[in-house]
Design goal:
Layout lengths: L1 E3 L18 H19 L15 E2 L8 E9 L13 E9 L9 E8 L2 H4 L5 E8 L16 E7 L1 E5 L16 H8 L3 H5 L8 E5 L2 E8 L4 E2 L12 E2 L6 E2 L2 E4 L9 E2 L7 E11 H20 L6 H11 L2 H31 L8 H20 L4 H21 E6 L6 E6 L1 H4 L2 H31 L5 H16 L5 H10 L7 H20 L4 H6 L2 H15 L14 H23 L1
Parallel strand pairs: 1-5, 10-16
Antiparallel strand pairs: 2-11, 3-4, 3-6, 5-16, 6-7, 8-9, 9-15, 10-14, 12-13, 17-18
Helix pairs in contact: 1-5, 1-7, 7-14, 8-9, 8-12, 11-12, 11-13, 13-16
Length: 587
């Protein structure tokens, strides 16, 4: 069916990629939403009114199984009364059973919609849907019209979204194809760049290609003027009787943003897929509660734009059995992450000896965490992610204080921090092996960092030289950071021992790495990034191999500064002390 009416469209334009977050965090949010919905569902049904309140209740004007006729009109006006226009009528269905779950209760239609010039220039289009008992018209001017037999709802088919901010990134070399774009940005007035708050927000109209109309299966009785707050905005009350018509819900839960079509003057036709189907009361409330939870997370900064769509995409495109396993494993991921963090703090808090441990790796880890924090700060990341990264920086700096002696040098005009190796680290082979491993790894990392920085400078765009340095260092940390675990492997190889390692914490991290491998198959990502997830597995497998080939040396001091023979001798002394009083009593 072809329709010529006032509407506008456009091809889907490229959008900047949304920052991908860990699926574990998003699934945790969904679990939280499910808990919220459980408690909200307890209040879906009618509540008992207080004793001093009227006991009069309202109910549905229609009965289960009644057949309905449907008319759907498309118009540029929000208020519609031109029922005789064949041009505006795009869909008509008859004998739709209300709240009956069978094949006849679901109807679909797909067609091309031809926009007018007005809509191509940010005009609006509205869908006006009307239902009536079979045989009754929806037009109030019709002689057979009955007010209690007809109801309708209006919904916009065109939505308006803010235009993404101008990309401030540019080619720092100025000799690439981006030079044309750079000239356009430099020609803009400097006053607008200095004060972006005075620049009006530009909105772009988008076409919704899918419209799903749900008739809610709701026959509950509610107290008059006291309907539940989550249901009251959707109730269509009939004024004379006080009862309500069946609830019409335009379901856009699964309509992702990348499916919207930007409207411009080059589009001459737009696809439109229509569907009318019933929906249960609890499913309807679940959709509403999840959308509300997403809005709350975005307002608090705990969820970025586009993350809700990415999570929905996982449920749309993923295997349901795999998703169920993923949700269970995500809970285990949070538990293991907490246990790894707890044991890491406990290990370094009680550690008395740096023998066999790489102190330089601790320092390098701090600088890596600091680089990531500065990169997130430069890219305007949400405050929750910044807080998490900032706390990680503080913890890594605290580890340096446990691995080395930190002293304040006040001899000069400006106090300075001086780092000195601990005696347990400097007076044995650990420092020698650590220096040797870090020496060669520094050459490798420096070579990789320089090569990647040159590539990024030539082929990528950046806001400034500072952003280029941060992005290059951060990319090196993400891609080559696992190499910093190699010095500890080299020390283990030279000492032929692994007794000094915090194996409990490493075990939890290894389990989390396995869970990340599972997420790599669930989240949509490039193949190279998916393969990079498995790089940490190789390092941990080497650790396990070293644990297998190197026997435990009970003479070596463990992470708490105690040896196995010392523990055995102390236990023997305790037994002797306990036996002496018993011998005195017998004598």
């Amino acid at each position: 069916m072809e329709v010529t009416a006032a509407a506008g469209g456009g091809a889907v334009e490229g959008r900047p990629q949304q920052q991908q977050q860990g699926l574990g965090q998003m699934v945790t949010g969904i679990i939280r939403v499910a808990v919220f919905w459980y408690f909200i569902s307890k209040f879906v049904g009618p509540k008992r009114p207080p004793p001093n309140q009227s006991t009069q209740q309202i109910s549905n004007l229609f009965h289960k199984g009644e057949t309905l006729d449907m008319w759907l009109y498309l118009s540029e006006k929000e208020k519609f009364n031109d029922f005789g226009s064949e041009r505006a009528l795009v869909w008509h269905e008859t004998y739709i059973p209300y709240a009956i779950w069978n094949a006849g209760s679901t109807r679909t239609l797909s067609f091309k919609y031809y926009p007018s010039e007005a809509v191509k220039n940010n005009g609006s289009v509205f869908a006006h849907v009307f239902f009536a008992r079979s045989g009754y018209p929806p037009d109030p001017k019709d002689p057979e019209y009955q007010p209690l037999a007809s109801f309708g709802w209006t919904h916009p088919v065109v939505t308006y979204l803010k235009k993404s901010k101008n990309d401030k990134r540019k080619s720092l070399l100025g000799n690439t194809e981006d030079s044309v774009v750079d000239k356009k940005t430099t020609e803009e007035p400097k006053d607008d760049q200095a004060d972006e708050k005075d620049i009006p927000v530009e909105w772009i109209s988008y076409w919704k290609p899918n419209i799903t109309i749900n008739l809610v299966d709701d026959f509950s009785r509610y107290p008059q003027n006291a309907a539940p707050p989550n249901i009251a905005p959707y109730l269509n009350i009939e004024p004379s009787s006080g009862n309500y018509f069946p609830t019409i819900f335009f379901n856009e839960f699964w309509l992702l943003r990348d499916k919207l079509i930007a409207i411009n003057e080059t589009i001459n036709e737009l696809p439109l897929n229509l569907e009318v189907t019933p929906i249960s009361m609890r499913k309807w409330q679940l959709f509403l509660q999840i959308d509300q939870s997403f809005q709350i997370h975005r307002s608090y900064g705990s969820m970025l734009e586009g993350e809700a769509d990415e999570l929905k995409r996982v449920f749309l495109e993923g295997n349901p059995y795999l998703l169920g396993v993923t949700m269970i494993v995500s809970v285990l991921h949070s538990i293991f992450d907490f246990l790894a963090f707890k044991n890491d703090i406990q290990f370094w808090n009680k550690n008395k000896s740096m023998e066999g441990l790489s102190a330089k790796s601790v320092v390098v880890n701090f600088f890596c965490q600091l680089i990531v924090f500065l990169y997130l700060l430069d890219n305007e990341t949400s405050w929750m992610i910044l807080a998490s990264s900032g706390i990680g920086c503080c913890i890594e700096f605290w580890k340096i204080g446990k691995a080395m002696h930190i002293e304040f040098d006040r001899s000069g005009t400006i106090p300075k921090l001086r780092f000195r190796d601990r005696d347990s680290y400097a007076k044995n082979k650990t420092k020698e092996y650590d220096d040797l491993a870090m020496k060669y790894l520094t050459y490798v990392l420096l070579f990789l960092a320089v090569c990647f920085s040159i590539y990024s400078l030539k082929y990528e765009r950046h806001k400034s030289w500072y952003s280029w340095i941060l992005s290059s260092l951060t990319s090196c940390v993400y891609m080559f950071g696992f190499i910093m675990m190699c010095p500890q492997l080299f020390i283990n190889y030279k000492l032929k021992s692994i007794a000094h390692l915090p194996w409990r914490q490493m075990t939890y991290k290894f389990l989390n790495t396995i869970i990340d491998d599972l997420f790599a198959f669930v989240i949509k990502m490039p193949i190279l990034h998916r393969l990079s997830v498995f790089r940490d597995d190789v390092i941990f497998l080497i650790y396990l191999y070293q644990r297998w080939i190197y026997p435990v040396d009970k003479k070596r001091v463990n992470e708490f500064g105690f040896g196995g023979e010392e523990d055995q001798s102390s236990s023997d002394q305790k037994q002797l002390i306990e036996q002496q009083p018993e011998e005195k009593k017998t004598n």
